[in-house]
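Q: What residues go here?
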């Protein structure tokens, strides 16, 4: 039996587990962080909870006699990906990283890309998201005269504290599970899990008079409707770029490619 460990928590990881499930000669274990209260479960064997860093993962790979490791975690799960690369190097268990492609800006979009959630919060604080070309010379008076900042925030519940406490900023924060209390009065929490539709996203943006969207470049179809709606409504978008991958990792961007790799012994 060839034993494959999938680091999951994404639609791609579930699709990979499903696609490998029926293959003879394979035993697949999916791993979840155990953070979401009611996770969508992949088919087959599932384990939950952290490994205890790269060393813990290396020990798991050895004890469980894992032959191949697929990191199919979310593009922003950078600690898990770093652990996977280090554990693979330490044990010699081959690693494949499966990442869905990032989103691409197209005609009609008004995106500003930033490299971190901190940079997104800074852009919000300065008001520079309003008119990128003219933002630098804008005076405080100009900013105060502008419409209030009403943010559609979809960067995850743990990032919320970075964006609260900014004067003149109201937030609609959408997340799967509730953020830690206390929730400041200028924050409205919307608990929801995709997929979403452009029509639903347009309705949400209009109902709450939102004038900027802040999102991570997660990629994929499940949550891209907000970007279609933003384009339709000429809503500016602050797009947080993905963290870089560890150097030298073997990367694929389709479940089909990951299926072929995981099903065949690596030479
Ligand atoms: N970040 C996002 O925006 C996002 C969005 C959707 C889904 N997810 C999923 O949610 C999980 C946690 O994301 P995160 O951003 O908190 O990741 P992270 O910051 O990279 O991971 C933090 C720690 O959580 C544990 N962990 C993460 N993924 C795991 C997995 N699949 N199996 C076992 N342990 C795991 C590891 O603990 P140890 O060091 O103890 O091993 C890791 O060091 C990931 O599986 C990811 O695919 C994340």
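A:
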């Amino acid at each position: 039996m060839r034993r494959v460990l999938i680091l999951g928590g994404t639609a791609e990881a579930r699709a990979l587990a499903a696609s490998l499930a029926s293959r003879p000669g394979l035993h697949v274990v999916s791993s979840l962080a155990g953070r979401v209260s009611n996770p969508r479960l992949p088919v087959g064997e599932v384990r939950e909870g952290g490994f205890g860093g790269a060393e813990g993962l290396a020990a798991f790979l050895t004890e469980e006699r894992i032959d191949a490791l697929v990191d199919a975690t979310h593009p922003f799960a950078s600690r898990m990906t770093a652990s996977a690369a280090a554990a693979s190097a330490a044990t010699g268990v081959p690693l494949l990283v499966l990442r869905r492609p990032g989103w691409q800006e197209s005609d009609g979009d008004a995106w500003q890309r930033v490299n971190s959630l901190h940079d997104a919060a800074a852009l919000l604080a300065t008001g520079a998201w309003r008119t990128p070309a003219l933002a630098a010379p804008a005076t405080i008076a100009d900013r105060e005269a502008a419409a209030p900042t009403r943010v559609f925030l979809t960067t995850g519940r743990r990032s919320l504290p970075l964006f609260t406490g900014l004067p003149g900023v109201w937030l609609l924060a959408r997340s799967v599970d509730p953020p830690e209390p206390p929730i400041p009065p200028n924050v409205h929490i919307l608990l929801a899990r995709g997929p979403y539709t452009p029509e639903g996203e347009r309705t949400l943006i209009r109902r709450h008079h939102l004038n900027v969207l802040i999102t991570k470049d997660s990629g994929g179809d499940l949550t891209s409707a907000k970007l279609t709606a933003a384009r339709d409504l000429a809503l500016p978008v602050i797009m947080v770029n993905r963290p870089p991958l560890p150097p030298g990792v073997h990367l694929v961007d389709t479940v089909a490619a990951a299926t072929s790799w995981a099903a065949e012994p690596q030479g």
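A: Context that may help when evaluating the design: The longest strand covers residues 26-32. The CA atoms of residues 33 and 49 lie 5 Å apart.
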